[in-house]
Amino acid sequence: MGPGFDVDAVVLDIEGTTSATGFVVDVLYPYARERFGALLASRGDEPEVARAVAQVRELAGEPDADAGRVEKVLGEWVDADRKATPLKTLQGILWAEGFARGELVSHFYPEVIDVLRAWAAADGVRLYVYSSGSVAAQRAWFTYSPEGSLMDLVSGFYDTENAGPKQEADSYRAISAAIGVAADRTLFLSDRLGELDAARDAGWRTVGVRRAGEPYFAAGVGGHPEVSTFDEISLARSVR
């Protein structure tokens, strides 16, 4: 029997937790990378794109970088797996459109969708997402799943722009304030020790998800409760 919790909110990481990192790296990253140039060239005046480009120039320390240079920087950040907000913003725009066109379908580990449905149906339990991927990308991910839209399961989405960096406790405090749930009534699921530590520092309950083949599997989850699948976790409210 795995760990059990009596909580009011469950906050989900995506990569390595609900879904395979390999899908993101092997499918989504190349999809966006091939389209950065066209996005910058044809839609650079759109407010969201223009703001992201300005952020790229600022983070790169190159205020005069042209579209070609910005595209190159974005590619370098992809190679380095840098969790830069403007990169995630531009990826999110392209992914959302790819999902909407039917060119992309998101990935979930086999047990995840059924477990999320059961948790969402539990009296008083709300589900949220907190991922380094942009909110736009998260919404597309849950809209275009292999089993259709899962948007009715999720009460809110958070990323590094509207919450903050995932390895800083203040980001989790900001989410607590936004969702109106006490820290000790909130459960966070992630595969990364630094994120789990930050959530625990903010007073949240935590579970480390370790799936074989994921990048952080060998690193372990420190002293956090550990599972390999979502169905090892029980929510007390779901069995009342």
Describe the structure concisely:
The protein is an alpha/beta fold. The chain has helices at residues 21-33, 36-43, 47-60, 67-79, 85-100, 112-121, 135-143, 169-179, 193-201, and strands at residues 4-5, 9-12, 126-130, 154-158, 186-190, 205-209, 226-227, 234-235.
Tags for this model:
alpha/beta; 8 strands; 240 residues; 43% helix; 6-stranded parallel sheet; 9 helices; two-stranded parallel ribbon; globular
Describe this structure in words.
With 240 residues, this protein is an alpha/beta fold. 43% of the residues lie in helices and 12% in strands. It has 9 helices and 8 strands. Strands 4-3-2-5-6-7 form a 6-stranded parallel beta sheet, sandwiched between helices. The longest helix is centred in the middle third of the chain and has 16 residues, at 85-100. The protein is globular, with a radius of gyration of 18 Å.
Write the layout of secondary structure elements.
Elements: E1 4-5, E2 9-12, H1 21-33, H2 36-43, H3 47-60, H4 67-79, H5 85-100, H6 112-121, E3 126-130, H7 135-143, E4 154-158, H8 169-179, E5 186-190, H9 193-201, E6 205-209, E7 226-227, E8 234-235
Parallel strand pairs: 1-8, 2-3, 2-5, 3-4, 5-6, 6-7
Helix pairs in contact: 1-5, 2-4, 3-4, 3-5, 5-7, 8-9
